[in-house]
Design goal:
The complex is a heterodimer of chains A (116) and B (112). Chain A is mainly β. Helices cover 0% and strands 48% of the residues of chain A. Chain A has no helices and eleven strands. Chain A is globular. Chain B is an all-beta fold. Chain B is 0% helix and 55% strand. Chain B is built from no helices and twelve strands. In chain B, the strands form three sheets. In chain B, strands 2, 5, 6, 10, 11 and 12 form a six-stranded mixed sheet that branches. In chain B, a hairpin with a 4-residue loop joins strand 8 and strand 9. Classes of the chains: A mainly beta (116), B mainly beta (112).
């Protein structure tokens, strides 16, 4: 069963540092997403990405955040200057528009970001 | 605005009991998808089911069943004969455009 892979599983950083979270979506998927989950809370949408550009972003996704698909397989989320409140689990997801799995978002195992 | 409500924050049952997790949603879209995801203690999000707004047939998969009622905007999830391995947080989600809107989640604890 193809899966979304995320690295690292846990990232510890100092406030103000830049971090890059990496994701390898399912190979034939064209739609990519980042979500975050603050400990004990619900999963929140950050951004969606298709055809090398952002399709939609939430209010959380401010100028400190950026996404990139640097090659044919990776999808990254960069936080330029981390804040304490960026501490959360970050999930990458991917989906296809092809049946029978149309619009099903498959999630990676997540990267736990701890900002100290 | 679209919204998903899971009113049950925590549920605790004893193994082999049946349990139903409630989900109520709000949307103005006529076409939409609903989902259930499971988040076990290890933290990953596991897809369980997708339901199209045009398909109101209930679905059963082993011990899992789902009851979609458009008239009450509900998409409830029942686990029959629960097992300890079912212990997890369960999220209901609604698609809006491409993104998913999640409910707060219901933490299910199944005790032996």
């Amino acid at each position: 069963e193809p899966e979304v892979t995320q690295t690292p599983s846990h990232q510890v950083t100092q406030m103000g540092q830049e971090v890059i979270l990496r994701c390898v979506p399912i190979s034939n998927h064209l739609y990519f997403y980042w979500y975050r989950q603050i400990l004990g809370q619900k999963v929140e949408f950050l951004v969606s990405f298709y055809n090398n550009e952002i399709s939609e972003k939430s209010e959380i996704f401010d100028d400190q955040f950026s996404v990139e698909r640097p090659d044919g397989s990776n999808f990254t989320l960069k936080i330029r200057s981390t804040k304490l409140e960026d501490s959360a689990m970050y999930f990458c997801a991917s989906s296809t528009r092809d049946p029978p799995r149309k619009n099903i978002q498959y999630f990676g195992a997540g990267t736990r970001l701890s900002v100290l | 605005a679209q919204k998903v409500t899971q009113a049950q924050t925590e549920i605790s049952v004893v193994e082999k009991e049946d349990v139903t997790l409630d989900c109520v949603y709000e949307t103005r879209d006529t076409t939409y998808y609903l989902f259930w995801y499971k988040q076990p203690p290890s933290g990953e999000l596991v897809f369980l089911i997708r339901r199209n707004s045009f398909d109101e047939q209930n679905e059963i998969s082993g011990r899992y069943s789902w009851n979609f009622q458009k008239s009450t905007s509900s998409f409830n999830f029942t686990i029959t004969a629960s097992q300890v391995v079912d212990s997890a947080v369960y999220f209901c989600a609604l698609s809006e455009g491409g993104k998913l809107i999640f409910g707060q989640g219901t933490e299910l604890s199944v005790k032996p």
